UniProtKB/TrEMBL annotation:
It comes from the Bacteria. This is Insulinase family protein. Keywords: Hydrolase, Metalloprotease, Protease, Zinc. SUPFAM superfamilies: LuxS/MPP-like metallohydrolase.
């Protein structure tokens, strides 16, 4: 159904653009249906009903029928800020414990298990009081022994098994300073089962498998200590809040407190804050309001409140009167963060702060966008606001160009604030910014995740819903003089600056973890509660597969160029893509050329003027170059599409060479390349992973060398830009225009030559056969190690798609999989561990497999042995197989490919040589698979394979003797991994044919 309310809002956006000053009224109304009272707000685009149950539980419901699924978020109005100063990290650790089950599930015999868990709780209290290191080690061995005995009664990850079985996706949780939120995306027909599970787990905490989960939290802490971004964040907050909990403690907790955890204090935290009068259930999706609230009341009404929950007394910080300077050292590239402190999310500061931030940086036409990013004065300049309950921080960030100092970056960023204070920004920018926010909010409302998150933010910040949804419209009351006044009052020398410098962190720390014994997982068992959930009768949803002939209109514009069309029947937004099968493997200059596009103008418009004009029109364009495809896309309001497309085509056809812009861009690329060599994630997941799969020559290293970059000419790149629409390509459109109206528009503005050029042949890269397995490693200053097993598999075969998905879901795709359970739950060997068999994107490509783990350096041998053991000896679990099967079936039955996703699903299928939605094969075959089929797949494609291993870690901590077991060891330099010094010898004549 068309969402009429959204259409009304979009019309209002357009009316405001041309000067209408009428205000939308958001009035709070009272409603009643089926015996339940609720609040709602007039003109609410999300159609939210807010209920309050007798026990104080808030329920926010937003109906959206995009697909038969519901995004669920259960929000607790308490986070790291609420931790006692003597036991930091409780909120975060409790979040982990909430996945361990209750007295009804996750246990084989609760009465026997409870006795042992009580003993473990008391033992941890005693352990926390011990100071002698030897005594502590010996006593922890006793904890480990009793914990092992308790684990015999535990059913590991039964919660995850249950929600996976009902088709949940994205099962997770997060803890911030102010809130803790538990997340699932479930099929709408499984709402009743989900409610039974959640109502049970929120009414009693059971800290089972405590010491193995403590290992995971230790790993998470060590990962944060390896993360320069995280360290910078903590330094900024410490400087900003010398008295408030935001700065005096961290969500994950201090090392000292993590070493002395108190189960009793965690229980106290749960008892105090995990009460219905401090929690909201926030749902968005395909639901019936009356049935949903009745079901929630049925299962949650027995949850008892804990009296009046007294909010924490807000700690007032003294005003900052001079800059506070912090320094952080680490192996990553340099940058700075500058933060200004404001009042919190629900304060009067919020509106003007939001508007100020967008005028400074809106990704297109803000002062920072135009003066720093567009002019290439700084690398990655940005501005954003971190909105917390008690305070907000307006943060400015940037990286230096070659030859710049961090103080140079600081000066340039602060200069933009000074321009704002002087009112040196164009008047139209305020109106355009408000409309941009409105457009973004409408686009966000197409996603249940965004909708439910809005509900969470409103609840946890105590913002009335009518005020929340009216915030953007309320911005229209502000004038330029209000913004200038606000800036002058708030942006002075009252900031904290963090210099992130490249170098060894002399204060580096890590959590030393006590050794533990492998615990029992009882993977094959089910609790009676789980059995009952499985027996509940649920009306099955029927899967809906795409029919490419019906769901996509295959039109043809001038010169026979294909136009793929899917109508937007929901609102007035459009997306238009020009998609070419020319990628970086066809021409490694492609991604350079399309990056250059953002820095050039036309004969009569500067690059800055182009960006501003797009922003005025409520449109934006972007570009993307992959190995085998490039696309340029335009999106925005359909009302202004013709004007935007005319401007877009003008830029593509008349891009004006700018030598100065090219020189700056190339200099910036050189600096980004050097920065990439300092990025742990880039080294691991781009450099090492590609080397492990392909060897020295890979799609990742198929880039212009530094020498070739320096020799590039402006005209060379503008020629590539102009040739883009002269080379074979197709047009993809999702929007509200009718078919003939769309064709008339693209025929008018998308001017084509008489004959399109054919796409040049790509360079082909073959994956390496690991006949003699190798271990490739790179030195990096870090506490942990990150390790990956990789292997090439067979050429693409569509008949493997279904079984590979079944294998992934069973083997390494979630918290109930053998990979996660063995490495994290059973032995505490890794915080992060997963495995994936990837099917090729094209018939000429090969499938591949990788298994990843992030582990403590001293646990490298055990972790690698455990992972390889899983790859070579198939872990059988009938229970796990049924969970995986049901998970896939429930997901497919409830998922719907919609909107622009239809177009890209078709493109993906066509690339594979398929003419139909492959999910139909998956759905049919998964129902017939047996555990023996999955074992056969593992035996054929993994068991007897050789694996290359890639590893990043500190050379002083890597156990090289153990690494010899996995192949020939070879250290790789960053130059070998990144390939920037190699000359590619581009055949320009062939490329330009």
């Amino acid at each position: 159904m068309i969402d009429k309310t959204l259409r009304i809002l979009l019309v209002l956006v357009l009316l405001f653009t041309i000067g209408c000053k009428d205000e939308v009224q958001y009035e709070v109304k009272q409603g009643e249906s089926n015996g339940y009272s609720y609040e709602y707000v007039t003109n609410d685009p999300l159609k939210v009903r807010i209920y309050t149950l007798k026990n104080g539980l808030k329920v926010y419901l937003s109906k959206y029928e995009g697909e038969p699924r519901i995004q669920t978020q259960i929000a607790v109005k308490a986070g790291g800020k609420n931790d006692p100063a003597t036991n930091t990290g409780l909120a975060h650790y409790l979040e982990h414990i909430m996945f361990k089950g209750t007295a009804d599930f996750g246990t084989l015999d609760w009465k026997k298990e409870e006795v042992l868990l009580d003993s473990i709780e008391n033992m941890f209290t005693t352990y926390g009081a011990l100071t002698d290191s030897v005594t502590r080690v010996n006593y922890y061995k006793l904890i480990d022994k009793v914990s092992n005995e308790a684990s015999k009664y535990a059913i590991a990850n039964e919660y995850d098994k249950m929600v996976s079985e009902i088709g949940a996706k994205g099962t997770n949780a997060y803890t911030t300073e102010d809130r803790t939120v538990y997340i699932n995306d479930i099929p709408s027909n499984q709402l009743e089962n989900w409610l039974q599970i959640e109502a049970n787990r929120f009414q009693k905490i059971v800290p089972r498998l405590f010491h193995t989960e403590l290992e995971a939290v230790y790993e998470e802490k060590n990962r944060s200590l390896d993360n320069d971004y995280w360290k910078t964040y903590e330094a900024l907050y410490a400087g900003m809040f010398p008295k408030h909990q935001y700065g005096t403690q961290t969500v994950i907790g201090t090392i000292e407190h993590l070493k002395n955890p108190s189960i009793t204090e965690i229980k106290n935290y749960f008892t105090k804050y995990y009460r219905p009068n401090n929690v909201a259930i926030c749902l968005s999706g395909d639901m019936d309001y009356d049935k949903t609230i009745a079901s929630i009341d049925k299962y949650f009404s027995t949850w008892q409140p804990n009296g009046e929950i007294t909010p924490l007394e807000r700690i007032e910080e003294e005003p900052l009167k001079q800059p506070v300077v912090k320094e952080v050292y680490g192996p990553d590239a340099e940058w700075i963060n500058i933060g200004f402190r404001f009042k919190g999310r629900s304060s009067d500061d919020f509106q003007l702060l939001r508007l100020t931030d967008m005028i400074l940086a809106n990704s297109q036409a803000g002062l920072i966008d135009i003066n720093l990013k567009q002019k290439q004065a700084v690398i990655e300049p940005s501005s954003y606001v971190d909105y917390l309950n008690d305070y907000a921080i307006h943060t400015f960030s940037g990286r230096p160009r070659e030859g710049q100092s961090l103080d140079d970056v600081k000066k340039l960023l602060l200069e933009q604030i000074e321009l704002l204070k002087k009112g040196e920004f164009e008047d139209w920018l305020i109106e355009a910014t408000i409309n941009d926010l409105k457009k973004s909010k409408i686009k966000d409302s197409e996603e249940n995740w965004s909708r439910s998150n809005d509900l969470v933010i409103a609840f946890t910040n105590g913002i009335p819903w009518n005020k929340y949804i009216g915030e953007i419209e309320a911005l229209r009351k502000f004038k330029k003089e209000d913004i200038v006044k606000f800036a002058n009052e708030n942006y002075k020398d009252n900031y904290v600056i963090v210099y992130k410098r490249t170098g060894k962190d002399l204060n580096a720390k890590k959590v030393n973890k006590p050794s533990i014994t492998k615990v029992v997982l009882n993977k094959e068992n089910k609790s009676p509660f789980h059995e009952r959930i499985g027996k509940n009768k649920v009306e099955k949803l029927k899967p809906v597969f795409l029919d490419y002939d019906k769901d996509i209109k295959k039109l043809s514009m001038n010169k026979g160029v294909e136009v793929l069309y899917t109508p937007n029947q929901e609102n007035e937004l459009y997306s238009l893509y020009y998609l070419s099968d020319v990628g970086t493997n066809n021409d490694p200059r492609m991604n350079i050329a399309i990056e250059y596009l953002q820095y050039v103008g036309t004969d009569d418009m500067s690059a800055e003027d182009v960006k501003k004009e797009f922003y005025k029109l409520g449109s934006n364009f972007d570009v993307f170059a992959a190995e085998d495809q490039t696309y340029i896309y335009l999106e925005g309001l359909s009302e202004t599409m013709d004007k935007s497309l005319a401007l877009f085509e003008k830029l593509l056809a008349n891009a004006k060479a700018d030598d100065e812009a090219l020189k700056k861009m190339v200099d910036g690329i050189f600096k980004k390349r050097e920065d990439a060599k300092k990025s742990k994630s880039t080294i691991m997941f781009s450099g090492l992973m590609n080397y492990g799969l392909y060897g020295a020559k890979s799609p990742f290293t198929n880039v212009l060398s530094n020498k070739e970059l320096r020799e590039l000419k402006s005209e060379e790149l503008t020629s590539i830009i102009k040739d883009f629409t002269k080379t074979e390509h197709r047009v993809l459109y999702y929007g509200p225009k009718k078919e003939q109206e769309l064709l008339a528009t693209v025929n008018q503005y998308h001017v084509l030559p008489d004959k399109l050029k054919p796409t040049p042949e790509p360079v082909k890269f073959d994956m390496a056969d690991a006949k003699e397995p190798s271990v490739y490693w790179t030195d990096y200053d870090m506490v942990q190690e990150e390790i990956m097993f990789l292997t090439k598999s067979e050429e693409f075969d569509k008949n493997r798609i279904a079984i590979s998905r079944m294998f992934n879901e069973y083997f390494g795709g979630n918290m109930s999989s053998p990979v996660f359970q063995e490495l994290r739950e059973s032995q505490g060997l890794a915080y992060s561990a997963f495995a994936y068999y990837g099917t090729a994107a094209k018939p000429t490509k090969n499938d591949f497999f990788y298994a990843y783990m992030g582990t403590q350096a001293d646990k490298q041998p055990e972790a690698m042995k455990a992972m390889l053991g899983l790859l070579q000896s198939f872990p059988k679990s009938d229970n796990g197989f049924e969970v995986a099967r049901n998970s896939i079936l429930n997901q497919i039955e409830s998922e719907r490919i919609t909107k622009a996703g239809i177009l890209f699903n078709y493109e993906s299928a066509r690339k594979k040589g398929l003419s139909y939605d492959i999910r139909k094969d998956v759905y049919d075959q998964v129902q017939r698979f047996t555990l023996a089929d999955v074992e056969k797949f593992q035996g054929e494609y993994l068991k007897n394979k050789n694996f290359n291993v890639v590893l990043i870690g500190n050379k002083d901590k890597i156990n090289f003797q153990e690494l010899k077991r996995y192949g020939k060891i070879q250290e790789l330099s960053l130059d070998e991994l990144f390939g920037y010094e190699k000359v590619q010898k581009i055949n320009l004549e062939k490329v330009n044919q």
